[in-house]
Predict the 3D structure of the following.
Amino acid sequence: MPDAVYVRDAFARIADRYVLTNHVLSCGADLWWRRVVTSRIKKWQPRYLLDVASGTGDLALEIQDECPDCEVIASDFCAEMLAHASSRGLAKTIVADALALPFETDSFDVCTVAFGLRNMSDYEAALREMLRVLKPDGRLVILDFSLPEGILRKPYRFYLHKILPHFAGWLTGERDAYEYLGGSIEQFPAGSAMTGLLEKCGFRETNFDPLTLGVVTIYEGTK
């Protein structure tokens, strides 16, 4: 499991260039991935949504724009990242640890976490905490990296471990933060392993949907 102190410090160091670096490294695909998630959530017409590990607020801002009747709250344990989210127009942010969310039980219609669960020190504890703050029949949506299957898997892993850290290090000056990225993706449960973990934590109606040939995956679960 990732070390929480290292992760917080790493994100604090790359906060100023985080958004640009993500767009460059994904060739803009990260914008589409978030739009896919937002389009699903929009159909549910939630009133209260919590974006956990929101970082610079990319997903929360997309949902805030597309779901004007929904109150969106963004939480993250890295204050430097959330400062960027606020400056970009996110209305409600709160510095909080995903393992101890400062919200009452049964508070939200939807919880989202994009590229954040993988960085948490205890996946199961974080999922149980998100389950707690969801209302009955509330939905959890996870968007995170995964490893593609088939012939793309080997070249993608080469890019992930050999090319991406050099390029990201040049963009941010913090190569070690992106060397960590590849290892975290390798260790993160994917596909049926993740839906199995969701069910273990109490979610039902779980499913997963790979995007971009499996480079990322959307997971859903219902309380």
